[in-house]
Amino acid sequence: MRYDRRKAEARFGHLFSVVPGDACHYCGLPSDGHDHRPAVHTLHKFSEGRKVTRREVEEHFGPCRLVPCCTICNMGIGSFEGDDDNDRRDEILGFLDFYDDDGPTKGEWSFGAFSVACEILDARVEGLVGDDVYALPAVGRLIMSHALRVKKGEWKDLEFFNEHRERFASWLCAEPRRKSKHFLAMARLESYKFKQGVYGR
Ligand SMILES: [Zn+2]
Question: Parallel, antiparallel, or unpaired for β 33-37 and 64-69?
Fold first, then answer.
């Protein structure tokens, strides 16, 4: 059965209830819309064209939720479903390219890149540089990776990062479409086929 996002949303929309809040469910930064959990496409595949009841859907997936989500996390998740929220956070982390490009540690998490980004944030705190440092992909990767790992319960939250998250969030909002552009820069992607959805893309 062909997938028509609009039709599928009209068909399954009533199953979803909105999770209140204005912070992204995955990273905690300000949200820009909602993410369907499970994805509408997943319900479409599950139904295989037959009529499904709410009970059937909930027995299989649990309650359907519309969780507050920021543009960056929404792009990182794309059509990925995963098993749970942390699985989806890992998927987003995979796009925040903090990995070595070559050498013996190719593909591994780059502690060097991480430390440089930390030094840049220190310099911002000391007032040596301005808010334009948030435009650097490495800085965004650091702030977003930290935020996602805090939400995963892996890292402790710190006042230092709290402050940078706020500044980074205002920098992201200062220009239209900056969030999606910055996602592409952090992920080192030239372009991205947007998930059709509540964002109206
Ligand atoms: Zn987010």
Answer: antiparallel
Calculate how far, in angstroms, residue 74's C-alpha sits from the geometric centre of ligand 1. Answer: 7
48 CA to middle of ligand 1, Å?
A: 31
Q: Tens digit of pLDDT per residue, the chain (201 long)?
A: 678 888 998 999 999 999 999 999 999 999 999 999 999 999 999 999 899 999 999 999 999 999 999 999 999 998 888 999 999 999 999 988 788 778 888 888 888 888 999 999 999 999 999 999 999 999 999 999 999 999 999 999 999 999 999 999 999 999 999 999 999 999 988 766 554 444 433
For residue 97, being part of any structural domain is answered with: no
Instruction: Flag whether 149 is in a domain.
Output: no
CA 120–ligand 1 middle distance (angstroms): 22
CA 198 to each of CA 16, 72, 134: distance values in angstroms, whole numbers, following the listed order: 13, 14, 27
Cα(79) to ligand 1 centroid in Å equals: 15
Q: Which domain holds residue 15?
A: 5-81
